[in-house]
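PROTEIN ENTRY
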Amino acid sequence: MPKKALNDICTETLSDNKAENVLSLDIKGISSFADNIIIATANSNRHAKSLSEKLVEEIKANKISIMGVEGKTESGWILVDCGEVVVNIMKNDIREFYDLEGLWGENTLIDSSK
């Protein structure tokens, strides 16, 4: 069986654990630090912490290394750096304020219906 892509592992794990509005952005051609950015909304600080913990657990279960986890639970924004994929778990108000989707542009959006 082929190894599952890191981006798919991340988006599926977030969705399975009730993250809202999970988006994956392809930034290969415009960024030197990652190939994809994933943005997901948590409905509370506790939910964000839980999502990040389950995500780290699933990534490690697939024998993939994590570069780091940044952000405090009470900040409403936790970043999980997996190297080629960077995951942003944010409360809705933080997500709207920083508008990462708008920053990177709609042309980077990966169609998750495939």
In short: The mean pLDDT is 89. The first strand starts at residue 20 and ends at 26. The chain has four helices and five strands. The beta strands are 20-26, 36-42, 68-70, 77-81, 85-91.
